[in-house]
């Protein structure tokens, strides 16, 4: 697929971002916002690596493979370009390319087919959890920032991620029937992937963004202290209820049971975020 072909499948384009409305003074001095945006730009920019693994994994499934290649991967890469452009507009002295090269050298070694679930249906469940994580991440980032261009960009990405979730969920339903996936198998997959949300690629990206942001600075906070600060900031606006609804949807519970479970699960999640 050529770049021109990919651009025809996008819901929006980088050129639509109004950088003339940028109020850089609102975020330039904020290390927390920088790290949240920059680390996200690294992960999204490396999307072609893990996306290609998925395309290969679903070889023979023409519908899924075509959507992964022509829509999902194209949109993820655009997210990376847009976030990179934002970083370079607001923090022009930051060596994004150098930092990304360091990140990618480590990150690319993590993106292997061994990381995929044992069946295609279970991988679609895992994808639902990943898209839940990205949707809620960008919604929270949109809420904690008052810079208008960043808020616009975060909402655009958040909307894309919701659509990605819907597609993965649709494909999961098909594979669930084909593979006769049991609810315990689905629960096990949900649990495994949810436990990994704060690890792996996101942690690698944040660590490299932090390292390059503070290199040579005498006032550099520790990585652990900075991580705690970011977590505290994001949890103030984290959409817990939405996360729970998206997380349990693949369980295909009766509507009455799903509604009864949402509130206690959300309460547990809020408690975990606060402790």
Describe the structure.
This protein is an all-alpha fold. The protein has one domain (25-239): Ribonucleotide Reductase, subunit A, CATH 1.10.620. Helix content is 73%, strand content 0%. The chain has helices at residues 3-7, 31-45, 47-57, 62-90, 96-110, 120-144, 148-179, 183-195, 201-214, 223-235, 240-248, 255-274. Helix 3 runs antiparallel to helix 4 (62-90) and helix 6 (120-144) crosses helix 8. The longest helix has 32 residues, at 148-179. It is globular and about 55 Å long. Residues 1-6 have low confidence and may be disordered.
Sum up the structure in keywords.
275 residues; Ribonucleotide Reductase, subunit A; mainly alpha; disordered N terminus
Uncertain spans, ≥5 residues at pLDDT below 50?
1-6
Secondary-structure content class: mainly alpha
Specify the number of helices. Answer: 12
What is the rounded Rg?
Answer: 19 Å
**At the fourth CATH level, what is the homologous superfamily?**
Ribonucleotide Reductase, subunit A
CATH fold naming: Ribonucleotide Reductase, subunit A
CATH architecture heading: Orthogonal Bundle
* Count of β-strands: 0
Output mean pLDDT. Answer: 89
Cα distance spanning the termini: 46 Å
Instruction: Determine the strand fraction and express it as a percent band.
Output: under 5%
Q: Can you tell me the overall shape? A: globular
Count of separate structural domains: 1
CATH class: Mainly Alpha
Largest sheet: none
